[in-house]
Design a protein that fits this description.
This protein has 256 residues and is an alpha+beta fold. The chain is built from four helices and 13 strands. It starts with 7 loop residues before the first helix and ends in an 8-residue tail after the last strand.
Length: 256
């Protein structure tokens, strides 16, 4: 028969993990209730009137395409950083920098020759737009992100080659757009879920960190930061039919 003293660390660890799981479920339930309460009092969208900026010309398999890059003070600005800092971030993590923008619906227009074409209005923050006017790098970056955003949203294939119109700041007319009243409305930052002491590395305490937010009315996103704790190559996730997300993450071995 096993010595009961040898079972104490194992039982203690199970109790710790159980307490963390219960704490997580409590925070998740609380966040969901608070979010539902805010949704009843906060309008889902705000109508804006974009201001003219500049217009670029490209094409797709269906003909000429014009993209009106415009701006509005109602759109949140991107993170404030220098071009050198932005270049370094893009080299390290291309998904780490985002430029909030509103992608308008396609509208049929006539070009200078009276031929049919398609135009899109893409709006960014007004202060960021003024900064972009003095930077070829930022201007080209915005055009690339706008083009890729339109391709993803409307299932298009746009020619990456483009040119800016010299004598026109926009083609057609700039229509009003509806944007979310609050960009990336966060449900709640659920705090640090502490790992057991036995799983912490020698460099110092590394704690998992969970963020949960509503990206769109029908899209819930979760971000879990697990520094130096898991084996990412062996981690797996599955969605249970009872609407439970199961994630299996093997822990890295602790240095002796």
């Amino acid at each position: 028969m096993a010595d009961s003293k040898l079972l104490v660390p194992e039982l203690s660890e199970e109790e710790t993990m159980g307490a963390e799981r219960a704490r997580f479920e409590e925070l998740l339930l609380q966040a969901s209730k608070e979010f539902q309460q805010t949704q009843t009092s906060r309008p889902e969208s705000t109508q804006i009137q974009p201001q003219p900026g500049f217009c670029i010309k490209t094409n797709s398999s269906e003909g000429k395409v014009f993209i009106n890059i415009c701006h509005s003070s109602s759109i949140p600005p991107p993170a404030d950083m220098t071009e050198d800092e932005l270049l370094q971030m893009l080299e390290e993590d291309q998904a780490g920098f985002r430029i909030p923008m509103s992608l308008g619906e396609p509208h049929a227009e006539l070009d200078a020759k009276g031929q049919g074409c398609t135009a899109f209005d893409v709006a960014v923050n007004s202060d960021f737009y003024r900064r972009m006017q003095n930077s070829d790098f930022l201007r080209e970056l915005v055009v690339i992100i706008a083009r890729e955003g339109l391709e993803d949203k409307y299932r298009l294939q746009l020619n990456p080659e483009w040119r800016m119109l010299k004598n026109r700041s926009f083609l057609g007319s700039l229509s009003q757009q509806n944007i979310r009243s609050q960009q990336r409305p966060r449900i709640q930052e659920l705090g640090n879920l502490c790992a057991p002491d036995s799983l912490r590395l020698e460099e110092g305490p590394e704690k998992p960190h969970l963020n949960l937010w509503l990206e769109a009315p029908d899209l819930l996103l979760a971000e879990i930061d697990l520094p130096k704790l898991i084996n990412s190559d062996e981690s797996k996730a599955a969605f249970h039919r009872k609407r439970k997300l199961l994630v299996a993450m093997p822990l890295l071995s602790v240095p002796s």
